[in-house]
Amino acid sequence: MLRLRGQTPAAERGGPRAAGLPLLPSWPQALRAVRAWLTPWIALQRWWQAWSKAPPPPQLQALINSVAAGCGLHLFLPN
Length: 79
Description:
The chain is mainly alpha-helical. Helix content is 51%, strand content 0%. The chain has helices at 9-12, 27-51, 58-68. The model has no long low-confidence stretch (mean pLDDT 76).
C-alpha cells in the first residue's frame, strides 16, 4: 500500500491526522510554487519586449510587478 509522507491510515480514510506529525516538504509542490510566478514573469516581459519598444501599459506593468513580488498565477490545478 502506497502512503503519502506523513499520512497515517486514518488520515488516508479522511480521518484526523496523528498529532505531531509534520508534513515533509514536497519537491513537486515547491517547483509548482516557483513556476507559478517565475514562468509568467519571464514570459510577460519577453512577449512585451518582442511586441513593442514602448514601456508596458500600467495594467500590464502592475501584473508584471505582482508576479515579480511572488504572487503567482495558478497555472496548474492542485492534485
